[in-house]
Amino acid sequence: MRHILTLLLFLSSFIINAQVFEDATQIEPLKIGATIPTVEVTSYLGNSKSISKIASEQKTVLVFFRGGWCPYCNKHLAAVGAIQDQISELGYQVIAISPDSPEKLSENIDKNSLKYELYSDASTELMQAMGLAIKAPERYSNMLLDFSDDKNSNVIPVPAVYILDTNGKVLYNYVNPNYKERLEEEELLEALNKFN
Prior knowledge:
By secondary structure, the chain is α+β, with helices and mostly antiparallel strands. It has a single domain (about 1-195), classed as Glutaredoxin. It is about 40% helix and about 20% strand. It has helices spanning about 1-15, 50-55, 70-80, 85-90, 100-110, 125-130, 140-145, 185-195; strands spanning about 40-45, 50, 60-65, 90-100, 115-120, 135, 155, 160-165, 170-175. It has a seven-stranded mixed sheet, with helices on both faces. The longest helix is centred in the N-terminal third of the chain and has 16 residues, at about 1-15.
């Protein structure tokens, strides 16, 4: 009975978090100490895999970005790429998630010369479960449809960076409702060093 109650509490917290917020100031991001949900994402090569399985393979820097159409996101992805060797030396992999289709992710990898993995959450299930999903401005609708291969017209994530252990436990998070403000590379490296 106790296990059933625990399971029900876990599932209810997942359901509460699985929503799309009206704006970025209302989000309820996954907190430090929580475990990431078991949600499938699709690689830029078209292979589906659970985000918790990906995180179990190596300590992870998990980056959520709005899409390849966002200049702030592209700048941030490139900045993370510039310190990727240092991140790897500390024992972490870098994974970035957006609602873009695998094809658009592949274009983004080429455009920004990225050497880390990008995954599609075109269904927005992961960003909703992480408490990061917001309604996009209506003017983005056609662009989002194009970038998601007609799977999403109105949801984007608030940009975020999580540090995860191999159990999928959140050790650190940086979430800022202002999409123009991103985690600085030095601050990310400082946080990673703290957990080594």
